[in-house]
Fold this protein.
Amino acid sequence: MFLACSGCGPPSPEKREQPGEGPVAVRVVRVVDGDTVVVAMPGGAEERLRLIGVDTPEISEPPEPFGLEAAAYSAERLEGRVVFLETDVAPRDRYGRLLGYLWLESPSGHLGEAQLRRNLFNAHLLLDGYAQLMTVPPNVKYADYFREFQREARENGRGLWGAAVDEEDFYVGNSGTRRFHRPDCPSAGQIAPQNRTRFETRTDAFELGYEPCRTCKP
Ligand SMILES: [Zn+2]
């Protein structure tokens, strides 16, 4: 839930962060849930920050499977720690939250797969199976790596990928959005015929790079 309060709204355009600046050191004040934290910026102001590219299960009552585990995972690794915040094309979402990548050590040199695996917390959530991939353009700087990290976690049954799921008889994919749905999801009924595709299993959808709908959570 987003609570409106004075001073917490989206910043005016001239105050927006300039994308493309190097990572800045921030301190993680607290972890809200697996993919959302409160950080203290260099000037001391506290900001709510949503991690880019990942989605952890909800912790609101009743918590989704692995929601509490994901929150504990992030708290253990981030709370109280100084990390390095990197932004992407869009620095904030529509709720005014910062959107970012959190590096555990200041990144340097080539930011390729090895450094992402070792040092990027967003990647760790995927690799250890505490988050699912959630690609939201235009913030796709590391999306290709993230897709492979999720594949690795899924194929090895790590974290939430090891949990049993009640399979639907089939799933409905939208080749335009690359999302897939349960057959009774309202969004599934609105897919244009030429974009509509059918999967017999969740695995088939993930294999083709589709991401689960955030409403019906297939
Ligand atoms: Zn859906």
Notes: Residues 181, 185, 187-188, 213, 215-216 surround zinc ion (CB under 6 Å). Helices lie at 67-78, 113-119, 121-127, 143-155, 186-189, 202-207. The chain has six helices and eleven strands.
